[in-house]
Amino acid sequence: HTHTHARTHQTALMLQFKAELEVFQAGHPDAASLWLKVPLALAHLLPAAADAGYVFHHAEGSMATMMKWLPADQPCAVPPYATHRVGVGGLVINKDNHVLAVKERSGPITTWKLPGGLSDLGEDFGETAVREVFEETGIKTVFESLLCFRHQHHLTWNRSDIYAVCKLRPTSEAISACTREIADCAWLRPEDFVAAANPRSIAHFLLSRWVATGGLPALTESVVPSILVPHRSGRMYMAPITGANGIPVVPFATPA
Question: How far is 62 from 80, CA to CA, in rounded Å?
Fold first, then answer.
């Protein structure tokens, strides 16, 4: 009897969802999708929503978000949630031209590497690099430029991955490594870093180029106004442009 009552209850909820869907479509004939947020405390509603045609789009914390694509004659055009993960490394070079390097306590990379980690929601590349370098090594830094980034697919959770490397200027030099994450941390000569680093790593490529040519690539950072959200802005990274008079051209504005 308990199972019969549960099925009857789920059926009633499903019919309620469908009735509300019909009301919504009648009032919004051009709507393409309908969204349903279900908190963890109401998780018992999920089967009824699924029976009514809703599917999971994403879940975060204690909230699941479901959606239903409405046009029956069109394929679903709603993009998947969280298509990318963003990580940032910091290339920190001190006054002696030594490079700040770390060895992780755990993880797939056991050789010397650049300090860095994943971006928090809402962080710019430079902000992530400065924060992660300080958290891992205790070194305070200032963002100077974006050197490069790598775009790769089918990694963690089968999502795409962006890894950027920023050039940072240190404002302190005394290392105080996070022993929970970092097994070793040191200022290395660039040639020693190149000799010890994974030859397939971006850091190895950048520092090999620096050792060979004395130069590093650099993309300047500018604040750009959002065309989608008023009073919001983002960061644009581009190769330096020099005007006809030899003066660098700064698009839009300089970072605050």
Answer: 19
